[in-house]
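Follow-up to my post from last week.
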Amino acid sequence: MKLPELSDKQVPMSESTVIEKLKRTANECRLDIITMLEKAKSGHPGGSLSVIDILTCLYCHEMKVYPNDPMNEDRDRLILSKGHGVPALYAVLAKLGILERDELWTLRQIGSRLQGHPDRVKLPIVEASTGSLGQGLSIAQGMAMALKMNQSPRRVFCVMGDGEIQEGQVWETAMSAPKFKLNNLICFVDCNNGQIDGHVTEVMDLSPLPDKWRAFNWAVHEIDGHNVEEILSALEKSKKETTKPTMILAKTVKGKGVSFMENQISWHGIGPSAEEADKARAEIQKTLDSLG
Amino acid sequence: MADKATRDAFGEALKALGAKNPKIVALDADLSCSTKSAIFAKAFPERFFQMGIAESNMVGTAAGLALGGYVPFICSFGCFLTGRYETIRMSVGYCEANVKIVGTHAGIGIGEDGNSQMGLEDVALMRAIPGMTVFQPCDEYSTHAAVEYAATHEGPFYLRLTRQKLPNLYRDNQVFQSGRGIILKEGKKLALLGTGATVIEALRASEELANYNPWVIDIHTLKPIDRALVRTLATSCDHIVTIEDHSLIGGLGSAVAEVLAEVPDSRAQLIRIGVEAFGESGDPSALYEKYGLSAPQIVQKLKAKLPNN
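User reply:
Got it. Predicted complex:
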C-alpha cells in the first residue's frame, strides 16, 4: 500500500500545528546530524545545521514527495547545490522514511550510498551529484525546463550556500533562468555568512545581494532561514509567480542550535568528538523539550 | 557527393534525428551558425535553447535536461566546451547524465582564427572522464552514423567535428560499430591510423608509401579504443603510426600507446604524429604542412624513420 503524498494533506492540520511539527522535525534532524558527524568523525556541521530548517520545510511540507516510490516522475525535485550540507538532506530523507535511519550512521564510510557529498548514481533521490560549488543551479534550471516541456506542474527547488554564489557559473544561470521564464524554479541561498577562510563579507562580499538578484529579474524574498512561518510564507508567494524564477535569501546562523558551534567558522568542516556531540545533543534536546 | 565539413553533416544529422525522436534537444552558446546546430534550431525552435556566451551554464543545464528525460546535444567549439572541464566532470560525468557534447572546430585545421579557437586538448580531457565515450568521424556519412549512435547510446558522449571540408570516404552500406576501427586498406608491416581530418591524410600518404604495403585505419572511436585491433597490429606490424590533429599528449597516439604497452608479445614500434605546440593563424593546408600533418609531411617523416625497402 502506498502512503499518501505528503503535500496532499488529507487530514488538514491547523497552521500552528503544522509549524510546530516542522520545528520539531527540524530539531530531531539536528540530533541525527550531530550523531552522523560524530560517527563519521568528519563532515560539515555548520552548514548542515544552518540549512536544516529550510530543507525540513521543503521536504516535509512544501514538496510533492512519494516516500514509498521516491523517484516517481510526479515528484518535486530538490538539488542541494551546497553539497557539503548533505547530512541535513540525509536526515530529512530518513524522517520521511526514504532512507532507513540506521543507514544514516554509514555516512562517509566506504561502500555507503551516503557519500560525503551527494552522489545521484549511488543514491538517485539526491537528484544531482554536487559538492563542486556553483553547479547545482544550472542543473536545476535544466530540470525545470524539462518539466515545462513535459507540461508538468511539478517544481524544482535548489539550495545554495552564500559562499557558493561567488562562483561565476551561478551568475550565468542567474541570467538565463528568467529568460526561460522558469517560474517553476525556486532557489534558496543559505546565507550563514561563513565560508572556509572566514566570513563571506570579508572573503568576497556579496552585497547588495537582493539587488543583484532583482537586477537579474528574479522574484526576490528576504527571510529568516530559521523561521518556519517566514519560510512557508515565501514559498507561498513563489506559487504566484507567472514568469519569474524565485530567489529566497535566507539569513541563517552557521551551526544553528548548538551554542558552541554557532557562527564559529572553525565548525565548518570537522566532526564533533563524543563529548562535544553529547553536549550538542543535550542542547538540541533542550530546544525540543521547550517546543512541547 | 561533394566534400563536406563534419560540422555541416552534424547539423543535418541532428535535424533528421530530431524529426524521429521528440526527446532530442539542442543547446548552443552563441555559435549555432558555426556549429550548425542552427539547422536543428530552424526546424525545431521549441527544442532549441540559446544559452548565450556562457558554456558552463549550458553544460549544467544540459545535465538537468538529461536527468529530466531529454537527450541534449550541447554545441560549441571543442576548446570552449571542454574548457568547462570541472562542470563536465561533475554535472555530466559524475552524474552519469546522458549529455551529448559536440565540440566543433577541432585542431589546427580551422586555420585563420588561430590557436584560441582550436580544440587541441579536448580529446585528452574527455578521455579522462569515466564513462565518457569519444568519437571523431571523418566524413559526412560517418558523422550521420556517429550522431545516430550518440542519440541511442545511454551516457556521456563527446563528438569531435571539423570546421574544414573533408571528402566522402564511406557509402551507405558501411557498418559503423562503436569501438571498432574501420580498415580502409589491409596491409603488412606498417599501419597508419588516422582519426577525423587525418584519415584522408593517412590514405593519401599510403599511396606514396605503397612499397611498405601500409594498413590504413580510421579510428572513429577514440574511447573505447579498439584494443583488439591494436593488439593484432602490435603482433603483426613493425611500425604503427598514429596521425592526429590534436595534442600529442592524450589523444589517439596516447590511446594506442596505452594498449600497446600492455601487449606482451608486441613487436611494433609506435610513431606518433600530432601537434606539439599551441596552434597559430594561417591557411589550413599550410598549417598542416608546417605542423607535419599533411600527407607529404607524413611521408617524409616516415621515410626517414622506416627501413628502406
